[in-house]
Design a protein that fits this description.
The protein is mainly beta and 160 residues long. The protein is built from two helices and nine strands, in the order βββαββββββα. Strands 1, 2, 3, 4 and 9 form a five-stranded antiparallel sheet that branches. The model has no long low-confidence stretch (mean pLDDT 92).
Length: 160
């Protein structure tokens, strides 16, 4: 069996940046289980996994364009400090949740100057070249329910 659209794939992975720092890993946790071909993974990684078999190991480099995109200056917003609530001391690098016209969004404080706070709404991995080590642990065909819902059910899935 090969990884194709509507295959339920279990992968162990480690994600590093080009400097070799680990950004995310399934090591020590259960494998990541996902439905292939419906956009649950970044496009570059799905493309690399297409056609692979159980037991395959990959070492792939994904460019930002096939991952979380490039960083966009338009996603930096300067807002007044007075607009924030809560007792926590704000600092550069802190994540904050915002209410936007499109629903909640996560931003990172990139600068604090006087009463002005600069928020960065770019994805934290935007503009980052991603280095993945991936092992295909298991494959199975998706059920009709999983295909219609667009995600995995049962162990490792969304419905427990």
């Amino acid at each position: 069996m090969k990884v194709t659209k509507n295959t339920v794939v279990s992968i162990d992975y480690t994600l590093r940046n080009k400097e070799g720092e680990v950004l995310d890993t399934s090591s020590g946790r259960t494998p990541l289980v996902y439905l292939h071909g419906v956009g649950q993974l970044i496009p570059g990684l799905e493309n690399e996994l297409e056609g692979k078999e159980k037991g395959s190991s990959l070492n792939v480099v994904i460019a930002p364009a096939d991952a979380y995109g490039e960083r966009h200056d338009s996603l930096y917003h300067v807002v007044p400090k007075s607009g924030f609530t809560g007792d926590e001391e704000m600092h550069v690098g802190m994540q904050v949740q915002l209410e936007t016209d499109n629903g909640p969004a996560i931003a990172v404080i990139s600068n604090i100057e006087g009463e002005e706070v600069t928020l960065d709404l770019n994805h934290p991995l935007a503009g980052v070249e991603l280095h993945f080590d991936v092992d295909v642990v298991d494959l199975r065909e998706a059920t009709a329910d999983e295909i219609s819902h667009g995600h995995v059910h049962g162990p490792g899935g969304h419905h427990h």
